[in-house]
Amino acid sequence: MKKEKILWWIVAIISGIALGLALWGIFAFSILVANNPESSAFVIGCFGFFLFANRLIFGFTGITNTAIKVIENREIDKNKLAEKCHHHLQNLNEFSNISLLYMWKGALEPFKYTYFFAFFLIFAFDILFELQILTMTTIAPVIKGFMFGAAIPTLIVWGLELMANFYLNQTLLVQENE
Amino acid sequence: MKKPVSIFLIVTFVALILGWSIGSFFTQTTVAKLIKTIPASPIVIDAQYDKKNHAISYSILNSGGTLLKITQEAFVFTPGQKSNQKEYIVSNIPVNIELKPGIITRFEMKLKSGTEKLHFGDVVLATFTYMNPLSPDLYTVVHSFKLKNISSSKKDNGGKK
Questions:
Q1: How far is A166 from chain B (nearest CA, A)?
Q2: How far is the C-alpha of A150 from the C-alpha of A93, rounded, in Å?
Q3: Has residue B158 got a pLDDT over 80?
Q4: ipTM strictly over 0.90?
Q5: Which of A141, A148, A159 sits opposite B22 (nearest CB)?
Q6: Over residues B7-15, mean pLDDT
Q7: Per-domain residue ranges for chain A?
Q8: Residue of B nearest to A141 (CA)
């Protein structure tokens, strides 16, 4: 009985400290955001767009890795590859690995265009401020910071897409040589 | 197996430009914030005599980033050779002129009413007392204005310098 009480007290004190720390953290964070609106917009833009770019980043790296495996004649799990294509495939053995790779790339296409469209909207909005078609001195640097934050994952997605396309083309060349 | 060297080069190049622009953007915003907090002293850029109103209009540039306030003005009139007016001093005229940051503000200082209009060679020594938002101290700017032959003769023709 006594032991239980002591335990409850410890839990209460720890949770009290945690609550206080959380409140203090929120307070400090809000001051940080209020003092550096551009930097916070940059961070939010970077993380937010990374979230949306997640599928594309992993998709394109997956395509690249699998294409390298195809080029080097290593074994590939066809069922796993077929899962990525977002199609119900019968007679899986009739499909070659390369065609499955191209289907995977096709499955990523709508996500890619949506992503680039979102980035384009932010970019166009920023350009409106840059060319002084719209003038809002308080919002313009925040939008610009957001755009720069979003530009980082967009660059990564673009580079990975180029690389995936390159290795996909390489697979075709290897097949022709054989 | 071929390696995508050209793609690496292109992406690296774009990444360098992106990093450069991000860095310059943050430098620019921090410098702009810093400049906005630096007060500067007002500079009298131009002074012209307005014969109709018997006043001198001053153009003052606030070269800093903060708002300055002129709280007082005073002037000393020293007659030239052509004038019959005696020397006089008017001091501590309370005014409230706000000098907005970065731009030129124009305002008029009326000379003592009932006195003779200015002639060539007359000198008006004006003292402006101003405050900046960082301290309660008072600062002054002294500007001497001498009515010159050339400017006043042109003024009679068109009123423009």
A1: 7
A2: 41
A3: no
A4: no
A5: A148
A6: 94
A7: 1-35, 37-177
A8: B29
Q: A10-19, A66-75, A151-160: which range is least confident on average?
A: A66-75
Contact of B1 with chain A, judged by CB distance below 8 Å, is answered with yes
Rg (CA), chain A: 25
Contacts with B10 from chain A: Cβ below 8 Å: 162
| Residue B71 clears pLDDT 70, i.e. is over it | yes
Q: Which residue has the higher pLDDT, B100 or A19?
A: A19
pLDDT confidence of residue A158: 95
A162·B29 Cβ contact <8 A? no
Residue whose structure tokens are 């394109």 = A60
**Contact between chains at B7 and A155 (C-beta distance less than 8 A):** no
In the block, which residue shows the tokens 């001053």? Answer: B58
Residue in chain A closest to B9 (alpha carbons) equals A159
Q: Which CATH class is domain B42-157?
A: mainly beta
The reported pLDDT for the residue numbered B161 is 34
